[in-house]
Amino acid sequence: MPFNTVLEDNLLPFGSVKLGRLVLNSKAPLDDFYDQPEIPEALCQEQQNFEQIQKNSKYSRLRARIARLFYLNQENRQEDAAYLTGSKAKTYTLENSGAWFKEACKTVETRKWLEAAITEGSDVYLVIGYHTIFDAHSHVREGVTVRQETRGANAGGEQAEAGFDTARNAATKVQRTHVTLGEQIYAVQYRKLAFKAFSSRIPETLALERGNRWKVFWGLRGVEDTGEDDVVQADLTDELPEEPFEESCEVGDDNETFLF
Q1: Where are the domains of the chain?
Q2: Burial class (CB within 10 angstroms; exposed 0-12, middle 13-18, buried 19+) of 112
Q3: Predicted TM-score (pTM) of this structure
Q4: Strand 256-259 to 4-13 pairing
Q5: For 105-154, what is each residue's pLDDT tens digit?
Q6: Dihedral angle over CA of 23, 29, 31, 37, nearest 10
Q7: By the 8 A CB rule, do 119 and 24 touch?
Q8: Taking each helix axis from N to C terminus, what angle separates 60-71 and 48-55, rounded to the nearest 10 degrees?
């Protein structure tokens, strides 16, 4: 299964995003979310794709965006090129996300939260993983303007009364390095939810033991409980998030799609 990974606009503290979280906006996992009472255990492993991003020239734009993400958390934001070095990267993954999601849908709180999102017409995403970097070193080449002044003098070597100034602006490149200590989240992996509505008057829709299909607590989109569209089914899909992104890039043998 290919992963849909969103490169965040800001670094996120480790632990601020939980696996199994339901969110309404893939670019804002800290807003309008719902966490299960029991957070699923994560599969943690070294991030192989990060090594490819660092070494392969075809990922240069993605590499620069990741580096800028770390650099933009510093005070000086006038960078024109950036890259990372010396970073250890990890990936935390929710294993068997489909089966886990069906179990999660059996809880009353989860069903009510999803119904509210359906009624509002919101997209819903499940957090199935995230990428982190430890003690990242971001190197930035900045354009710096240097001003040099020359004072005029008379033939006798004495300073002229009026004098004159000449100024030369020289653009040069200065490399600056910033270190972000600790483990930081820079990208989150999602699966998008798809919803279907059924009527309980149709016999085959009464097989509610699947977990991800249930009789609604209140009518969907204002429909009262009359047996019409009073059963909802939630499924995970591999669709891309619908938030606006500038670029996308497939990385590695598992075709992980980075959106940024």
Answers
A1: 4-141+174-194+236-259
A2: middle
A3: 0.79
A4: parallel
A5: 999 999 999 999 999 999 999 999 999 998 888 777 765 444 444 444 44
A6: 60
A7: no
A8: 100
